[in-house]
Amino acid sequence: MDQIQPPKNPTPTVTLRPCRPSDLDALVAWAWDPRILQFLRRGPLANSDEARHYLTTHILPHPYCRAICVDDRPVGMIKVNPGPAHEPFKASVGYSLAYDYWGRGIATVVLKMVVGDVFKSWAHLVRLEAIADVENPASQRVLEKAGFKREGVLRKFVMLKGEYRDMVMFSYLASDDPIIYDN
Fold it and tell me: Phi then psi for 97, rounded to 5 degrees?
């Protein structure tokens, strides 16, 4: 008689929380991965001291930076950057996730969580935008699956690793259909 085996990949619990100083080791574990860095504006952090400095000066004081946790373990982060003072009605979102967690739907779940939270918390917000490298179709799919609308290609929009890069602009408007989050 065959034994029933537990599922090999049980559905993980995905949560968001404010980043903490204790996230340093997790940040170091995935933030230097070249597969992640290829699409980020910042380069690799040289050592743990530089990572600690980045955490304390850029991540912890950020107005909306959350640790992406899978089963209570930080495996990435997501930031919402408020627009400039002359455009307070908009904000931008960016995210990064440890390579071992790519392709599992985690980024889509997290984006849906953040969109709902941000539009609820920031009543003045009309537009949330995101850009994805034209050579990063996986991130483009994440944004589309999370309800963002593709607006077009912005040519030579970002300087990334010494090269001008084309980016795809996406947006989610407060007037768009509400996101239904079902994790």
Answer: -140, 140
**Is the full-model pTM beyond 0.90?**
no
CA–CA distance from 180 to each of 95, 113, 117, 133, 140 (Å)?
20, 9, 12, 26, 19
Q: What is the pLDDT along the chain (183 residues), one digit of tens a residue?
A: 444 444 445 567 999 999 999 988 888 777 778 788 777 776 667 677 888 888 899 889 999 999 999 998 999 999 999 999 999 999 999 999 999 999 999 999 999 999 999 999 999 999 999 999 999 999 999 999 999 999 999 999 998 888 999 999 999 999 997 765 544
- Contact (CB, 8 A) for 112 and 152: no
User: For residue 54, what are its two tokens?
Assistant: 């980045």
CB neighbour list of residue 153: distance below 8 Å, 6 or more residues apart = 134, 166, 167, 168, 169
In whole angstroms, give the CA distance from residue 143 to residue 49.
33
Residues 6+ positions from 140 with CB-CB distance below 8 Å: 132, 150, 168, 170
In the chain the domains, ranked by start, together with CATH numbers, are 14-173 (3.40.630.30)
Q: Would you state the structure tokens that stand for residue 10, as one six-digit string? A: 């049980």
Q: How far apart are CA 132 and CA 139, in angstroms?
A: 6
Maximum CA pair distance of the chain? 70
